[in-house]
Design a protein that fits this description.
It holds the Pfam family Spore_Cse60. This protein has about 60 residues and is α+β, with helices and mostly antiparallel strands. The model has no long low-confidence stretch (mean pLDDT about 90). It is about 20% helix and about 50% strand. Strand 2 and strand 3 form a beta hairpin. The longest helix has 13 residues.
Amino acid sequence: MIQVKEFLDTEYSLAEKRANEFLAGLEEEQVVNVLYGSYAKSQTQGLVHQRASILIVYKTK
């Protein structure tokens, strides 16, 4: 069965750390794809909020 796991965070390094911990528990053959995206959103007060998203597509045993 194919499944997905998403890691979202406002800090890229934290999302990356969690994704790597998850990947460490998988066999290499189970990993189908790893996708990364980020965006920044400006608010009226001049603040910018950045978010990182890592999506792991994998096969279950």
